[in-house]
Amino acid sequence: MTIVTPFFAAILAMVYLALSLNVSRYRISHKISLGSGDNRHLRYAIRAHANFIEYVPLSLLLIWFLESLTLSAKLPFWLGAVLLTARVAHALGLFYPRELFILRQIGSVATLSVLLVASAAILLFYLPVSI
């Protein structure tokens, strides 16, 4: 059996690192150590970074639980792929709100869909036991 959750966790960690470095880059170049200093670009970078860390850990945890319970990598692989694509799309939509706002919307909906599908699959796995 191939385990896919750690693979996606590693890639998503690299995305998180890139988002973190982006915030640091804006902070250094604009000499802002706390908050956004009313800098629009720094504010977008902070929100992209924060939004990522608000959704990715729980999503990965649910994907990992699903993979462990079902001993299958098929659904977890697709959920991981959608999550990765969604988080990159969301960040790009935040960085370029005029040009790519649709990517932010798609990223948000796709992320929430991953949470919903993973949660529902886990609940369905346990449903026969609880009846």
Kindly describe this structure:
The protein has a single domain (5-130), classed as Up-down Bundle (Four Helix Bundle (Hemerythrin (Met), subunit A)). 86% of the residues lie in helices and 0% in strands. It contains four helices and no strands. The chain has helices at residues 5-30, 40-70, 74-95, 97-130. The mean pLDDT is 91.
Key terms for this structure?
single chain, Four Helix Bundle (Hemerythrin (Met), subunit A), mainly alpha
**Mind telling me the CATH class?**
Mainly Alpha
Number of domains: 1
**What is the helix tally?**
4
- What would you report as the Rg, rounded to the nearest angstrom? 17 Å
The first-to-last residue Cα distance is 30 Å
Q: Quick one: biggest sheet? A: none
Described by the principal axes of the CA atoms, the overall outline is: elongated
- What is the fourth-level CATH superfamily? Membrane associated eicosanoid/glutathione metabolism-like domain
Specify the CATH architecture: Up-down Bundle
Helical residue percent? over 70%
Strand content: under 5%
Report the structural category: mainly alpha
Please count the beta strands (DSSP E, at least 2 residues each): 0
